Amino acid sequence: MNTVSRLADMGIELPQAAAPVASYLPVVVEGNIAYISGQLPFVEGKLVTGKLGVDLGVERGQQAARACALMILAQLEAAGLLDRVGRVVKLGAFIASSPDFTDQPKVANGASDLMAEVFGDKGRHARAAVGVPVLPLNAAVEVDAVIALTD
């Protein structure tokens, strides 16, 4: 079963892959590694904005991180690579948050859990979860990825 069919069976529909907002490529492949640029959280077509610990709680942050992970999958699909995922190697999660907010790892679990849900053990990965003062377009979360591809 291909990944899109598996997602459909799980009740997950991928969003349309977002166009870059600046001078970069959404996906770059070097050898058997795909590097996916940071993706922003769109839920029901609307960007999730604000800061964790000020405007948003952990649960909404997790939803935003999951939306970023869905956009990563959408970028892979748009590049014709979704069915070549051999392993999710690493995710980088950037969480716009107040200086006293310390639950960045819990927020990033929204993206991590989706990858494990979709790919099983191949979706378990290394990760960084970093609090930042602001993200592009006032996004609450941004997630990038390194993916090993099969031939």
UniProtKB/TrEMBL annotation:
Record domain Endoribonuclease L-PSP/chorismate mutase-like: where: 5-142
Pfam family, one: YjgF_endoribonc
InterPro entries: Endoribo_LPSP/chorism_mut-like, RutC-like_sf
PANTHER family reported in the protein's UniProt record: ENDORIBONUCLEASE L-PSP_CHORISMATE MUTASE-LIKE DOMAIN-CONTAINING PROTEIN, ENDORIBONUCLEASE-RELATED
Name of the featured protein: RidA family protein
Protein species of origin: Qipengyuania algicida
